[in-house]
Amino acid sequence: MDFSERFATNLVRLRQEAGLSRDGLALQSSIKAGLIDSFEAGRALPRIEEAIQLAGALGVPIDALSDGIEWRPGPGEFDITDR
Predict the structure, then answer these.
(1) Taking Cα atoms as reference points, which of 43, 41, 47, 3 lies closest to residue 29?
(2) Which stretches of the chain are assigned E, i.e. beta strand?
(3) pLDDT per residue over 5-16, tens digit each?
(4) How many Cβ atoms are within 10 Å of 55's Cβ, its own excluded?
(5) Which of 38, 52, 74, 82 shows a CA-CA span of 20 to 30 A to 65?
(6) Cα-Cα end-to-end distance for the chain
(7) In this predicted structure, what is the pLDDT of residue 83?
(8) Does residue 58 sit in helix, strand or coil?
């Protein structure tokens, strides 16, 4: 699993836990549903502003979107866990 896949998994899980459809999340976050679809499919990653909008719409801290994603400074790579 890579960074975008892990982010996508987190976003889908959080959206479902919030009881929102993609259209509902789009409405709450002011982000187009097609873009949310791209995030959830792992085809795109949000800009920081969009990540903050998503977290706010989902009612979670922004770090919930990056659960299982950590930066390892020594080798300079992301460590992705499959939780």
Answers:
(1) 47
(2) 69-72, 77-80
(3) 999 999 999 999
(4) 20
(5) 74
(6) 11
(7) 63
(8) helix
Q: What is the pTM of this model?
A: 0.93
In the chain the domains, ranked by start, together with CATH numbers, are: 3-80 (1.10.260.40)
Residue with tokens 């975008």, as numbered in its chain: 4
The three-state DSSP-derived secondary structure of 24-75 is HHHHHHCCCHHHHHHHHHCCCCCCHHHHHHHHHHHCCCHHHHHCCEEEECCC
Q: At 34, list the tokens.
A: 């097609």
d(CA 49, CA 20): 20
Torsion of CA 21, 68, 48, 27, to 10 degrees: 10
Mean pLDDT of 64-75: 92
